[in-house]
Amino acid sequence: MATREPMVFIVDDEAAVRNSLGLSLQSVGYRVKICESAEVFLKVYEPNQPGCIILDVHMPESTGLDLQAYLASEQILIPVIFITGQADVPTVVRAVKQGAVDFLLKPFDFETLLRSIQEAIELDQIRRTERVQRDTIEKRLASLTPRERDVLDKVIEGKLNKVIAAELGVSIRTVEIHRARLMAKMKVRRPTELARLVLKLRRSS
Question: What was the pLDDT predicted at 3?
Answer without folding.
Answer: 64
